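re: ur question from yesterday

yeah so i grabbed the chain u mentioned. its 369 aa long if i counted rite. heres the sequnce exactly as i have it in my notes:
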Amino acid sequence: MILRLASALLTGLASVSLAAAQAPKPVYPPTHWPIRNGDYTIENFKFGTGESLPELKLHYVTLGQPHRDAAGHTDNAVLLLHGTGGNSHNLLSPVFSDFLFGPGQPLDITKYFIILPDEIGHAESSKPSDGLRMKFPHYDYDDMVRADHQMLVDGLHVDHLRLILGTSMGCMQSFMWGETYPEFMDALAPFACMPIEIAGRNRAWRYMSMQIIRKDPAWDDGNYTTEPVEGLRGAADLLLIAGMAPQQMQKNYPTRQQVEAYVDRAVDATVAHTDADDFLYYVDASRNYNPEPKLGAIKAPVLWINSEDDFINPPELKMAPDLAARIPHAKFILVPASLKTFGHGTHTHAEVWGSDLEELMKETEKGRE
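ran it thru and got these structure tokens back, copy pasting raw so excuse formatting
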């Protein structure tokens, strides 16, 4: 999640003035893929807290064309879910898309209809920095999954998914999709998460990052007119640590001067393009996440992959194999740490796990014949 989050926070999410009615549109890296942008608005969306919005806007990007079987059901739609602080363009990154979307590749866009949403609170979907600030409904992952389902069914007229692949926050949402809508997908590919309550060190660093912002007097209970820079710098420090891959860091920054210059650049960029209230909301959205009690309800085959050098989901907990065994059709892979892995961000580097995804697609295609 956090390597992707640190990168995603460079895309211009900030709105630094309460006078602005709408936060500026994020600036995305160029892509060679023939993407189409779309928006779907849900009227009077009620959140799990009981709060509601008159209009909840969901933005999304698509590739390819939907296909329907003889009964009229979509049979080639793939939902790709980004991580915390990310957006619909994150998984268009070459290290992900160039290994998956091309001819003959596992998610060939001439064969599949790819859907990449901006989740609630992110990028071009409704979020606190649009104007409501801390009066924005306190959404959680359940709200995100439910809103995406409505967008798919009512907005895109997709009534079945060939695959859900989620990275980090999207990984956690993938498990929730499997429990909440067990018949809706043929396969699940959750990458870089654990299907348990966010507790221990994982909740600790999230809570610390939020408290650093809340304790900055400039935050002013979310009513700031300029960003609380010191709080954001402290939060950015924690994000950077959580997303680091030790072997990659040592290789890329082998001297004190190099690594300090890298940290200064990364933190400055994150602070410059982060809205504090948006940050608080999307980090806290995991507060009640806990799919563990219902893992047995997941019917779709699951390919669950974590990386050994992931600070956020440390293998030392030794919980994943037992959790995977509780899912009827699950395969868990722990990728050994090496110079080919990228810590938590391994979830986006398809070269590492692309062959495993290809095998999942082939196995589940046979099951559909």
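noticed a couple things. The longest strand covers residues 52-63. also The radius of gyration is 20 Å.
anyway ttyl
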